[in-house]
Amino acid sequence: MTAILDQLRTGSMLSKLPGADDEARRPLPVSGMLAAACTLGVGLAALTTLTLVGWIAAPRGTLGAGLPGVFRTAAQLWLAAHHAGFAIPGGRVGLLPIGLIVLPAMLLYRAGRWMARDADLRLRLPARLPKNSPREQAQARRRAQLVLVVQAGVSLAAPYALLAGLIALVASNEITQPFIGEALFSHFVLAFLAGALATARMIGPWRVMLKLLPERVRALTLGTAMATALLLVAGLGLVLVAVVLNFDQVRELSSVLSPGFVGGVLLILLQLLYLLNAVIWALSYIAGPGFAIGADTLVAPTGVQLGTVPSLPLLGALPESGPVPAWMMAVIALPFAAGAVAGVMVARISPSPSYEAAPLWGFLTGVSTGVVAGALAALSGGPIGGGRLATVGPSPWEVALSVALEVGVAAGISAGVTNLLLLNKRARAPLDKAAAPVRKAGAAIAKAASKVGLAESDPRPLPGHWMDATEADTQEIPVIRDDWQDEHASAEAETLAQARPRPPEPDPARPPRKDIVDESDDRGGHVIYVDPYAWDRD
Asked: Percentage of the chain with pLDDT > 90?
């Protein structure tokens, strides 16, 4: 078993297939068929080994008679790993561990990467573009890449689903009968997603994969992924807290089963596989609707009503029946917090030029998150036979509606506020850039003025006769003749001369007039330069 997994991890098993070099490339459907067959073979071999260990440790007759019963049980586990249900006498089995999906998903992703290297994958761009521009060429290349990714996913998923149908026919017996329709659909969807993701990953790094999507779709996808991840992390934290608080009940249920060493290891493995189911149930609890453990039961923040639960130690972490403490209602704020973070991400990835579009895209992020949460709720629950245990897990439509409203409202508000701040920042950027030279010039002028100083700060008195209020009222204002020198220019020159360390040399061509005296009028803050003795000379 270890050697098989090591070969699969290093890619040596698939690389030994003929025609894997660059000189001879197989058609894409042929490579997809080989990859699907290898994935099914390796996966069935791994589960058959685990089933054989359980058959040795379990009582006789539990897993069927002989090795054919072991292989049939391994085939049923393989179908259950793809979430394909079974029909049993008196009901059906739909509560399957989501953790089992990890094994076929990893195998399919590895097979998809080998298929992308082995097949003849070429980007076929259109011969004539509408516009011979770099943008049109980039869009055409992106569309061609998306078509190639879809073709690769279908090439792996189609033969994989057909082989799964054959396995479903082989695994059928008088007690359990797999649903062939569910097997075909689940195998096709999982293989398509894994093959498409692996092919897109071969095109470039993870950040390049996201660029294959349009900007709005990319923002919506990342926002939905962020909100869903935050909700799942919150659900995992709630499960761990519940296990710690009710650890005595979990240990008591484990001791009642008395599985032994090998059975105990398998029991721990089974609970780990169901851990993701429990996390999704906790997500439903946080969202508000809660989940059920049988008919007429409910575990929600508003109250707990339980009956007899299956003897699984992990279910010992469930709260007791009765009212829930009021502080537990605070967990309902977690979806709003996740929506706020998702809204900020959506607005920053793809800002909208209109103010009303950003809240709409934020709300659509909440709606898509609700759809994902509803799908996860449908996968995590299902019946266990008939009768009372026909209803186990959360209600998909209730979870989808609650998450869509809670995350959507918070994401719409946060996206609108973030988009408004981004638009205001972009609007101020050109003004700040244009005003930067003015600010620099003003700072230089202020610095120079501080070094030069002002005339009023000079302790020396102004030259000439300083008129008091009486003189200003009684003296007649003289008439300035045209042949006189400009009094403002002379005053400015004199003020600058006093501020300099060394006075400038007088101009011999125009000697200053000595019969003009600078005077000041302190009324109203205006400075007037006059010759008070001009009337005497007239």
From this structure: 20
